[in-house]
């Protein structure tokens, strides 16, 4: 039995690995010349840049994936109990980071964020002593949301509204549906602490002002398992996933963009590539963007539930401007900066409204500055650093002309890092620059309107309301990745892959787990 997987992002590769372990003949088709999708790697002049995700949390999910073996797709248990990362180490080296992030404020102060409770309290005491008690209460609420939303419901596929209604009372009791920033503001009075404990939803494309408070659980996901980095970059992790897939007999083809999902009698029977080649399959898994999958890859006559109107009404996440740059080291970069840096603007709420609601390009901006050569110098030539700075911007529904403004925005972003003192003298030390805009996400990664994270994780696009991992329109079509349940972020797309593999195992009669553990039955 053959399965075709469209896209070699982390979600697509994770699903392909589990399907290959189930005994299916698996072929992954990738548009780009190499693997990774959003986690593609850009190399130039001796520099290596991860183009996408760099924050790795929940290493046990990787261990679970790398431990799959023929006949054992490890669909259960949900949270592996192995000590250490013995299987992972065969494929990639993962190292913990401390701090997880250094959060910089425009007044020159900073907050070092990690999973040491006493350290967090000392940082709060240093910057906002009035909020120490507030943290204690926030911590209790975030832990309860983590236990319910992640540990208990994390792998639940919400295939119908009834699935959501069963857990709604518990979520309401935990105040999980109010906006995250509103919840955080109940516990913290200081504006800096409100930013520290709400910004993380931006890492999965969510506006802190509108995502459900359920996402406060991210605090305890990181408290529980830490934040890690793959030596060699996220690209090294992707290469490990490709190797694992090939060991299980799966194959991957690059430069193979899919033009259409083929159907017969409302059942997926294969795909056709851009060059006209037809590839037959017994089932198709799409790791592509939601609107692209239903709006471009499926013929209109094959769609009922996911109509043009429904796709048009989908609220998409913001996009990103990312500047990749190599520069001569001065030797003091590690004094002010860390591996992950969050550079906040003097505005917070209004900046978020500009990006998510007004869809305008503000004069000021916030940065996520990634400086991985502080951890792994091999990513740059000797005496140099490789870095990228990421700026949230509106998606292409804004009408911004990035072909015109992109180069000047690159200069503005890098000059800010120089003149604000984060990387003094940067403009004179630059040896290489490259940048991507929402146009890259739209035209290269096939993300509708250049969104960077799929449907925005607002309440009415969460759980049952988020696109399902089994198509309602076409039998034999399954979905995986950030556009689908449970959402964006590396842990979520790996969870998505396991959920999708479960659905396929159930539909094919290949499941081996106790019946009462199975979820999301049609």
UniProtKB/TrEMBL annotation:
It is an enzyme of class 1 (oxidoreductase). Its EC number is 1.3.-.-. GO terms for molecular function: oxidoreductase activity. Pathway: Carotenoid biosynthesis. The keyword Oxidoreductase applies. Pfam families: Amino_oxidase (PF01593). Keywords: Carotenoid biosynthesis, Oxidoreductase. InterPro entries: Amino_oxidase, Carotenoid/retinoid_OxRdtase, FAD/NAD-bd_sf. Residues 11-504 form the Amine oxidase domain. Belongs to the carotenoid/retinoid oxidoreductase family. This is Phytoene desaturase, neurosporene or lycopene producing. It comes from Thermus aquaticus (strain ATCC BAA-2747 / Y51MC23).
């Amino acid at each position: 039995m053959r399965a075709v997987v469209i896209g070699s992002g982390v979600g697509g590769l994770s699903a392909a690995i589990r399907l290959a372990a189930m005994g299916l003949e698996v072929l992954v088709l990738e548009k780009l010349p190499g693997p990774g999708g959003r986690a593609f790697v850009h190399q130039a002049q001796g520099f290596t840049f991860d183009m996408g995700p760099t924050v790795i949390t929940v290493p046990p999910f990787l261990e679970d994936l790398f431990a799959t073996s023929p006949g054992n797709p490890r669909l259960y248990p949900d949270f592996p109990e192995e000590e250490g990362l013995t299987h992972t180490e065969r494929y990639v080296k993962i190292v913990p980071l401390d701090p997880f992030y250094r959060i910089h404020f425009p007044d020159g102060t900073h907050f070092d964020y990690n999973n040491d409770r006493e350290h967090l309290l000392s940082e709060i005491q240093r910057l906002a002593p009035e909020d120490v008690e507030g943290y204690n209460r926030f911590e209790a609420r975030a832990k309860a949301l983590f236990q319910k939303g992640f540990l208990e419901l994390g792998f639940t596929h919400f295939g119908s509204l009834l699935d959501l209604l069963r857990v709604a009372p518990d979520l309401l009791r935990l105040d999980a549906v109010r906006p995250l920033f509103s919840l955080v503001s109940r516990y913290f009075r200081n504006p800096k602490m409100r930013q520290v404990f709400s910004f993380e939803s931006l890492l999965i494309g969510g506006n802190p002002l509108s995502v459900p408070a359920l996402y406060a659980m991210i605090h305890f996901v990181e408290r529980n398992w830490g934040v890690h980095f793959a030596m060699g970059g996220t690209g090294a992790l992707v290469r490990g996933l490709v190797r694992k897939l090939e060991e299980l007999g799966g194959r991957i083809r690059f430069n193979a963009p899919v033009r259409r999902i083929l159907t017969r009698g409302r059942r997926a029977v294969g795909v056709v590539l851009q060059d006209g080649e037809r590839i037959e399959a017994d089932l198709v898994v799409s790791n592509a963007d939601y609107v692209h999958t239903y709006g471009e890859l499926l013929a209109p006559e094959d769609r009922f539930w996911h109509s043009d109107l429904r796709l048009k009404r989908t609220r998409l996440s913001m996009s990103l401007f990312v500047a990749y740059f190599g520069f001569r080291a001065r030797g003091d970069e590690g004094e002010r900066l860390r591996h992950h840096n969050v550079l906040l603007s003097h505005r917070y709420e209004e900046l978020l409204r500009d990006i998510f609601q007004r869809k305008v390009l503000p004069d000021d901006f916030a940065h996520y500055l990634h400086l991985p050569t502080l951890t792994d110098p091999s990513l740059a030539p000797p005496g140099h650093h490789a870095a990228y700075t990421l700026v949230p911007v509106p998606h292409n529904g804004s009408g911004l002309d990035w072909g015109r403004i992109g180069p000047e925005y690159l200069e503005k972003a890098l000059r800010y890092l120089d003149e604000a003192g984060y990387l003094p003298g940067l403009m004179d030390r630059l040896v290489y620059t490259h940048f991507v805009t929402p146009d890259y996400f739209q035209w290269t990664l096939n993300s509708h309107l250049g969104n960077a994270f799929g449907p925005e994780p607002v309440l009415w696009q969460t759980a049952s309301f988020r696109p399902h991992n089994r198509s309602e329109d076409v039998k034999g079509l399954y979905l995986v990745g950030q556009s689908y349940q449970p959402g964006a972020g590396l842990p979520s797309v790996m969870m998505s892959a396991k959920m999708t593999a479960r659905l396929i195992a159930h539909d094919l009669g290949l499941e081996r787990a106790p019946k009462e553990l199975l979820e999301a039955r049609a």
